[in-house]
Design brief:
22 helices; single chain; five-stranded mixed sheet; Serine Threonine Protein Phosphatase 5, Tetratricopeptide repeat
Length: about 525
């Protein structure tokens, strides 16, 4: 039973009131006082302490309290809270450049959440892994992880999780901008900023639904403002930064305050005030000295380099350029060491984890709901009814393309009539194998019945889907079917359509119409429905 000693009760009340500084002091006192108490009391105090320190941006303290409280929470079976603590440790370690600890904590958080079947905690754990990967220097891989987390949240009513996912999508795009902005692709750099802005604007109304959301709203507003600065929308950015700084100063959150002050320096640079930027950023640099805030300090060095260069003070510009490069080298070394200690690269880890998760989800769905076609091993209509709506919803939410191919074997009745149903079944199983060979694990394959199949190409526009469908058609036509029975000839017709609209009935109608046209035009061809009707 939980030991409800005075400081623990007071810490809960302070957290509910949004007073993180007071909550941290009280939870710390409760944690120390509960040293000889039962595990429940000490675990509760450690959890509250870690939460308060995380909200205050006290990253080294988060690592310390997280290390102490995570095993206690596991021991008492508080799995969701343990996953939260591991996620906070992941983010804190990422901010400090402790990538070995961040990756280990993120992987453990994902493992525990997935084993418990907790979708929302798993989504937030994937998001935290994305934060780590972005800090390690790969915002594109981070974006893929956070997008996967977003898909996991489909159908969940969790404004906090959804707003955090959107905020971290914004952050991953912002990280990509910093890598792209001095390169040869200014249009691409601007495009990722516009995506960052869109995600942040989508997150803010969700955050407004939550109580005591001052710090979290300030983080989202800060990322939005930073993105707007680089897009040249400085007036709105300034208003957001002023409001966000007021919130973090009120809470005493120094770490997030530093990031917002950096954004103000970028704002002054964007307005052409290099002198003002150098003054503000130099003061921030002095405050950051010895703080271990490697990510923010790296960006401050870069901004100071550009400020002093604009002022013609080349010695100071060079010193900050050297400081920036030294921190970047340290980041790369930490990244490589972390990967070496885990004996796996980021790409391999993500691929293995995603493939394993896809297979587990498919196996569970087929086993639970009899969604597998017995002959071909593909999904059946029940599988389609379960899988397609969330795919459409995810594509609609992200604005990504999605294409649908309706595939029908030509004159298949002749195969059955002339060579027998056993030969016909063999043809269908070979067709299923060819479909698998020409699609990805993330695509949806379904046997609708008889000789008719459906392919849903995720994140694929109509041109790419047409190329894949045409290769499949050619592969079927050129296949040596004599191993089935002498004289067997198999071709197929494909009706192809694409979303938007992200509507099942409209897509089905368009694909049917395209297939009908393929049959009328002589079969053995791919036809795209371009008119939606």
């Amino acid at each position: 039973m939980t030991s409800d000693i005075g400081p623990l009760q007071a810490a809960r009340a302070a957290l509910e009131a949004g007073n993180m500084h007071q909550a941290s002091l009280l939870a710390g006192a409760a944690f120390r006082a509960a040293a000889q108490a039962d595990d429940h009391g000490r675990a509760e105090a450690g959890y509250l302490l870690c939460m308060a320190q995380f909200r205050l941006g006290r990253w080294p303290a988060v690592l310390e309290s997280g290390e102490a409280s995570s095993p206690l929470l596991h021991r008492i079976g508080a799995i969701v809270r343990q996953v939260e603590v591991l996620r906070w440790v992941t983010i804190a370690a990422s901010e400090l450049g402790r990538f070995d600890l961040a990756l280990a904590s993120a992987n453990e958080s994902c493992r525990v959440a997935e084993a418990a079947g907790e979708r929302v905690p798993l989504a937030l754990s994937l998001m935290a892994l994305g934060v780590c990967i972005e800090r390690m220097g790969d915002p594109w891989q981070a974006h893929r992880l956070v997008e996967e987390a977003r898909v996991l949240l489909q159908g969940e009513n969790s404004p906090y999780a959804q707003s955090m996912i959107l905020n971290n999508l914004c952050a991953s795009y912002l990280g990509a901008f910093y890598l792209l902005r001095d390169g040869a692709a200014p249009a691409e750099a601007r495009a990722v900023l516009e995506k960052a802005v869109g995600h942040a604007r989508e997150a803010l109304p969700l955050m407004a639904q939550l109580p005591n959301n001052g710090i979290l709203s300030a983080i989202i507003e800060g990322n939005l403002a930073e993105s707007l600065v680089h897009l040249g929308q400085c007036d709105e950015a300034e208003q957001l930064l002023d409001r966000a700084l007021g919130r973090v100063n009120e809470q005493g959150n120094t770490s997030h305050g530093w990031r917002l002050r950096y954004a103000r320096g970028e704002l002054l640079l964007a307005r052409g005030d290099a002198a003002g930027a150098s003054r503000e950023l130099s003061a921030l640099w002095q405050d950051l000295d010895g703080s271990e805030q490697s990510n923010t300090l790296t960006r401050v060095h870069d901004a100071l380099y550009r400020s002093w260069r604009a002022l013609g003070v080349h010695a100071r510009a060079l010193a900050h350029l050297e400081g920036f490069e030294a921190l970047e080298r340290r980041r790369v070394v930490a990244q490589l060491q972390a990967q070496s200690r885990l004996f796996v690269t980021r790409v391999e880890a993500e691929r293995a984890r995603l493939e394993a998760q896809v297979e587990r989800l498919r196996a569970a769905e087929f086993e639970a709901d009899a969604q597998r076609d017995e002959l071909t091993g593909l999904g059946n209509r029940r599988h389609l009814e379960r899988r397609l709506p969330p795919l459409l919803a995810a594509a609609a939410a992200s604005g990504h393309p999605l294409s649908v191919a309706l595939v029908d074997l030509d004159h298949f009745k002749h195969v059955n009539d002339r060579h027998g149903h056993a030969a016909g079944d063999r043809v269908l199983t070979v067709i299923a194998d060819l479909l698998r060979a020409h699609t990805r694990a993330t695509d949806l394959l379904v046997r609708l019945g008889g000789e008719e199949f459906l392919i849903v190409f995720t994140d694929t526009d109509i041109h790419a889907a047409q190329e894949v469908s045409e290769r499949l058609r050619e592969r079927v036509e050129s296949h040596d079917w004599t191993h089935v029975a002498p004289g067997v000839v198999v071709t197929l017709s494909v009706g192809l359509t694409t979303a938007p609209p992200y509507d099942l009935a409209a897509l089905s109608h368009s694909a049917d119409l395209a297939l009908y046209r393929a049959k009328r035009a002589g079969r053995n061809r791919v036809v795209v429905c371009n008119d939606g009707g």
